[in-house]
Amino acid sequence: MKIKSIFLIVLIFIGLIGVLTKSVTVKLSINKISETDNWGPPETSGMNYFHVSNTNEFSVVKKITPAENEILQETCGYVKRNHLEPDEIPEDEDINILSKRNIFNGTDFERRGGFNAIAYAKGKVPEGTAPWAVAIGMRYSASCTGSIISPYHVLTAAHCLFKYKMATTNCVGEKIINLDINTRIYYGGTCLKKSVDMLCKTATVKEKRIRRVSYNYVYHLNLCGYGSDVAIIEVESPFKFDEMTQPICLPSPLFDEKVNIGPKEIIHNLGFGKTELNMTSVYLRRGKSLLCDENAESNNVKTVFSNGILCMRSCNTSDNIDCFGFDNMRTGICKGDSGGPDYIRMNNVTNPNDQRYMIIGIHSSGNECTPEDLKAKVYHNSVKVSYHVKEICWLTGICPESKKNQ
């Protein structure tokens, strides 16, 4: 009798998993833009990930070998060009943001000058300063940002892969996979095209096509919350690492952000997203944040260190002398910055050339990135990477050492 009861419970559990999986799969469809677009339907295999690839190909992303991982762990996180260089500033920096809003409100950055995307950033990130940053988009425009984590893999946000029929924060309704033959990974530079402020005189990025994608389906099951906004992209051919293209390190699954990141320690943010004037940027920008205060007046603070989410807030020089944006405004994460990295120094060394960097967060969501009150704090939620490292290791073979402080 006892054996029969256990068997019945197992059958019910398997049935529930099947129903749950089906309820997600039914909502997914492939957005084909031409007959040559051969993306197949999502498949499930192991853990909490769906996998999408070109038809006739094994759907799960490539896994690097233990030998490749050993080399990766020794070489990731280094900056080999323009390390610690300040951002490049347009000549019209003296025009304040209010003037810019009045003059250029509603226009497209690619066609107008007069302002410095992450909102209120100081300018363009110098070439080579963030060699792991990539833009995800089409025709040399970015819809999202990502980070190189191996010769084959880019880490980004799951919602970057989808179109949502209903523009709500809890992502109810149908989700449509938004991959087509024109989607590219732009890497190896900070300029997507020429900019009118002449910080970019030409495109400096290279491009790769996407071969496979694995994304965490728990993100949609939990109404686009609970820190599962994670996707891994495999490119069609391996990145060639040089001074312009490098992988960033992953944290250990034991890394404790609350213990190992100080209350005033700067967290760097990267993105190809919208500017403070809701205009498209054509170059990479950099912001700076701090972890949210435990007693801060924010609806997000209750999830600062729970459910795989990191709450971060904007900062200025009153928080840290090195924390500033344009006109000393607080930088904020905007549309197009999604999937980009929050990263920190992973070692304290005397020689800056020996400095290494580690990604701790993936931009996922936030409040208004350009509030009317220009001095207001701006909050954003990022996926806690350490929370997902074991799954990333299982899928990709990228496996950092299990150390609490790394």
From TrEMBL:
Limits of the Peptidase S1 domain: 103-400
Coiled coil regions, renumbered to chain: none
One Pfam family linked to the record: Trypsin
Record bears the keyword Disulfide bond: yes
GO BP term, pick one: proteolysis
Keywords associated with the record: Disulfide bond
PROSITE patterns xrefs: TRYPSIN_DOM, TRYPSIN_HIS
Keyword Disulfide bond found: yes
Gene Ontology MF annotations: serine-type endopeptidase activity
Protein name: Peptidase S1 domain and Peptidase S1A, chymotrypsin-type family and Trypsin-like cysteine/serine peptidase domain-containing protein
Organism encoding this protein: Strongyloides ratti
Lineage, highest ranks first: Eukaryota, Metazoa, Ecdysozoa, Nematoda, Chromadorea
